[in-house]
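As a warm-up, study this chain.
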Amino acid sequence: MKTLIRIAQSTLLIATLFLASCSKDSSSSSNPTPSGSNYFKLDGTLVTLDEVNVTVYDNAIAGGRYIDVYGLKGGEQVLELHMPAAVGNYPAQHTSFSMTSSWLTYQNPTESNFELADFHSNSGTMNVATFNEADQKLVATFSFVGGNSASATHNITEGHLNLTAF
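Now compare it with the structure written out below.
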């Protein structure tokens, strides 16, 4: 009887090891799942924001309520996002600042010349899925191609914001 129990235990151990070795290892993925809820990919590389600041205000130029979001990584501002304070899908274009569009900017923290550091949205979208100013809740996704005065570009993809208490 002891022999049968040991054979069963050995078989179970071997089967467990085999199945574990067959499972997908997510840690080796080139696109890891973000640990935080505020992140984006910069030219394919995941950037998780350390801090996000939000301001909601009346924009006299655009003619309505607007949201400004400032994302920081390592104490440096890397994102500046402007959009209407309402649920909706807004094209990302910095040339027309209105209640029907958004202005999204990636800021390279290693560049000291602001004309070369700022990559303003030439195309893309800001999708505000949830906005509740009273409850201080903002959930949004975004992606855009940003350019600067030197004709350099960066691709910002898979951007995600999930903010409360701003």
